[in-house]
């Protein structure tokens, strides 16, 4: 299975460029679609941290907190959303699969659903400082949501 390990923060007890810090803290995320792989990642990261520290006469402590699960759409709901997009616009592009973390993943763990995106053209990614929302996408996006509601409600 796939595993994504991201080191997203590196902090030390020193702010001087020429002083070896007494403490270092790495933070990041680990994502996997399979719980056993997540268990293995936790074990291996701990082994790696403790082994590296021991090689230099130091100690390592691992605080492994499972927070955001990988977001995985459900097939039936995803196909329904795609069908509604095709009804509204005549097309539906499938986004590349990513092992991203998103609040919506908690909802998808509790109920079947689909995390869907409305195309925005060639702008920078959403969390990028140069992102510029394409106002022309509003009409198509609203039409898609109306179709999802009208066709999906009992």
Give an overview in words.
The chain is an alpha+beta fold and 154 residues long. It contains four helices and two strands. The model has no long low-confidence stretch (mean pLDDT 91).
CA distance, first residue to last residue? 37 Å
| Molecular shape | elongated
Number of separate structural domains = 2
Order of helices and strands: EEHHHH
Q: Return the average pLDDT rounded to an integer.
A: 91
Tell me about the largest β-sheet: 2 strands, antiparallel
Q: What is this structure, in a nutshell?
A:
With 154 residues, this protein is α+β, with helices and mostly antiparallel strands. It contains four helices and two strands; from the N terminus they run ββαααα. It is elongated, with a radius of gyration of 21 Å.
């Amino acid at each position: 299975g796939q595993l994504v390990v991201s080191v997203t923060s590196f902090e030390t007890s020193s702010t001087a460029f020429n002083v070896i810090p007494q403490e270092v803290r790495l933070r990041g995320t680990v994502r996997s679609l399979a719980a056993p792989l997540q268990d293995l990642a936790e074990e291996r990261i701990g082994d790696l941290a403790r082994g590296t520290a021991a090689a230099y006469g130091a100690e390592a402590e691992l605080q492994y907190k499972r927070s955001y699960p990988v977001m995985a759409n459900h097939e039936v709901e995803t196909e329904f959303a795609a069908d509604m997009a095709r009804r509204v616009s005549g097309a539906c592009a499938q986004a590349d699969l990513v092992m991203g973390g998103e609040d919506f993943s908690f909802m998808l763990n509790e109920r079947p659903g689909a995390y869907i995106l409305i195309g925005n053209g060639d702008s920078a990614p959403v969390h990028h400082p140069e992102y510029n929302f394409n106002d022309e996408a509003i009409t198509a996006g609203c039409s898609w949501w109306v179709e999802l509601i009208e066709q999906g409600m009992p």
